[in-house]
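Researcher: Structure prediction, please.
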Amino acid sequence: MPSRVYLDWNATTPLRAEARTAMLAAWELIGNPSSVHAEGREARRLVEEARATLAAAVGALPRNVVFTSTGTEANALALSPGLRRSSGGAVEQLLVSAVEHASVLSGGRFPADKVSQIPVTRAGVIDLDRLKALLGDGPPALVSIMAANNETGAIQPIAEAAGIVHGSGGLLHIDAIQALGKIPFDIKTVDADLATFSAHKIGGPKGVGALVLAEGIAGLEPVLRGGGQELSRRAGTENVAGIAGFGAAVRAALQTLPEDAERMATLRDSLENGIRGIAGAMVFADHVKRLPNTILFTAPGLKAETAVIGFDLEGVAVSSGSACSSGKVQPSHVLSAMGYDATVAQGAVRLSLGWSTEPDDINRALEAWRKLGNTLLRA
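Model: Predicted structure follows.
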């Protein structure tokens, strides 16, 4: 039996060998990282090394990195109405792009009547003119935009949005969970105020995330209260092994980022060209900058649930979009926001590649799609 082909890297990634090694070593330690004895100090050393690694990777200071349990928790921590620059007033409203992850669309700790959505174009890119209009002369706003969409792969104009947001006196939060390790990301270069990350998207363990703040951002209120861990920003004993794995994954991902991105883009283009030639398939957001590893496509009459199952039976793991819907195949809110009707949205299939994807994986995925195109759409 041939091995299976994994093309759902945007949902989660295999654990990198470097992360596994770091975690195994961390599990041998017995100290609590908040304890002052030698055992505790050794656990603290691993946490702080990972904190420094992530900070350096994204252009921040270690003291501005807050480790969380997940990217979702990091987003919830970021979306707070108390945020402000150290010399300014607190934000009073939240604007989120219409294609955000569910953890951002939920609004965090903002009241529902203080949350508004920013429309996107047909290509899934934020409408900067509408952003400017929504900010208007209103109270200071926190604006949340993902660096790159988890479904289409579309890369957002973050730096341009930052200029608009800061010009209105607001703050900018970036969900960079899909961007880290696939494209360069630096919080200072894009002029963001907050950014969130997740370990398991880059070869680290599941269950570890991080919120990174730009220097001078104040007013962050903890979601979890209790002890003074994470510089009093997030109570609870740190997941030492998970954080150590996160740091190791960051180092490994950034070390090979340029060549991995180039190779994934070549494989993605080959896969995309093959998909287009079967059953009248179309690829979404194909005329804008995208992540080098992501394809979201559909074909006339295609049903995503049936297609995902069909690919699975052929030994190829794909998805219908975000994996954060309790295993349910649902119409994509991203495509709805882009202006596609429910019939099209219900047929969208996502294929996402990773650092170990091989040309043979692409060939097998295309072979599976040929079979599905013939049986599902031409019967």
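Model: The two ends are 28 Å apart (CA to CA).
Researcher: Thanks, that helps.
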